[in-house]
Amino acid sequence: PGGLTVKRSEFQIAVDGEFGELGRTLVRDVVLDGFGMTAADCISAGVPPREVWAALCRAMDVPDSRIHGVGLLEPKG
């Protein structure tokens, strides 16, 4: 399906860009709704990074206008 595509490396760039130094802590500590795991655990379990990124953005109330992440291309519409 169309929409956001994020690789693991792009996921980390987006986290760093959106959350700065706090990003790595959020990935490690925030349990994501719908997964019952942290973002780090989701990535390790093979959940597609784009789904993890979207869930982390929802958990942290990131505006929809920034969900594609810093340093990532906006999805084509």
Described by strand count, sense and barrel closure, the largest sheet is:
2 strands, antiparallel
How far from one another are the termini? 12 Å
User: For the residues shown, what is the average pLDDT?
Assistant: 84
Percent in helix: 40-55%
Strand content: 5-15%
Q: Which structural category fits the helices and strands? A: mainly alpha
Order of helices and strands: HHEEHH
Total number of helices: 4
Shape: globular
Spatial order of the strands forming the largest sheet: 1-2
Rg is 11 Å
Uncertain regions: pLDDT < 50 for 5+ in a row? none
The count of β-strands is 2
Brief summary:
The protein has 77 residues and is mainly α.
Overview of the structural elements:
- The protein is mainly alpha-helical.
- It has helices at 8-19, 23-29, 39-44, 49-59, and strands at 31-32, 37-38.
- The chain is built from 4 helices and 2 strands, in the order ααββαα.
- Strands 1-2 form a two-stranded antiparallel sheet.
- Strand 1 and strand 2 form a beta hairpin.
- Helix 1 (8-19) crosses helix 2.
- The radius of gyration is 11 Å and the shape is globular.
- It starts with 7 loop residues before the first helix and ends in an 18-residue tail after the last helix.
- The relative contact order is 0.25.
